[in-house]
Amino acid sequence: MSKDNLQQIKDERELVRILKDLFEESKPSGFKKIFRHTGLSTKRFRDLWSEWWGGDVPPRLEVDLIFVFEDIKNSDRVLLAGVEVELFRDKAKSFCDGLQQILSFGLFGFDSLVLWHIFSEEMDNRKIEDYVRSTKEIIDGFALPVVYFATKLIGRDRFEFFAPWSFYSSGSWNASYLLSCLKSCCEGKRNPLLHKQDIEKRRKTLKILLKIPV
């Protein structure tokens, strides 16, 4: 895989495609499957919902990435992590970009909600730290059930960590390591809405859509 930086990646959709390919190549322990740009507003989702549950469908969304992990804590042994990816090339974007979107994922029955800020290799580390500090203050201060990852993408296949841990000065890490860290964080922070009956129904519908055994 070439080592071009984020300046040569057209937009977030292309970045998500690249990340999906990268993670499918890495396949760490406990990783089952990955989906990108999953539309929760499609006719198929609406038809599935109506067929199984009837009534109004949930709000319409698209999920950048869905990671499927093995999970011994769930009765179906599956952990579904919905990921919102936000790409930062400069100072134009707000530190809270993606928060509203990722919280709305909770209505669809994801086990974990992941906000992932990805910063360009050219961005100054001090500026990244400012973004990360502000985002963490919001998430931690309001005790939001969000797993927050912030990384600088080095080339197209290495990551420097700024959150949930700050050890970018120690070097960069591969996709397999990042995915293992993500799984561990998701296991420790769950969607608090999962016990609600409507949310359980939506999780089952989501699994049917993704062709995961119910």
Condensed summary:
The protein is an alpha/beta fold and 214 residues long.
Helix content: 25-40%
Count the E strands.
6
Question: Could you tell me how far the N terminus lies from the C terminus, measured between alpha carbons in angstroms?
Answer: 36 Å
- The strands making up the biggest β-sheet line up spatially as 1-2-3-4-5-6
How would you describe this structure in keywords?
214 residues, alpha/beta, 6 helices, 6 strands, 24% strand
Structure description:
With 214 residues, this protein is of the alpha/beta class. It has one domain (6-209). It has helices spanning 12-26, 43-52, 99-105, 125-141, 175-188, 197-209, and strands spanning 31-39, 62-70, 78-88, 112-119, 147-154, 158-163. Strands 1-2-3-4-5-6 form a six-stranded mixed beta sheet, with helices on both faces. Helix 2 packs across helix 6. The relative contact order is 0.18.
Give me the secondary-structure topology.
Elements (H helix, E strand, L loop, with lengths): L11 H15 L4 E9 L3 H10 L9 E9 L7 E11 L10 H7 L6 E8 L5 H17 L5 E8 L3 E6 L11 H14 L8 H13 L5
Parallel strand pairs: 3-4, 4-5
Antiparallel strand pairs: 1-2, 2-3, 5-6
Helix pairs in contact: 2-6
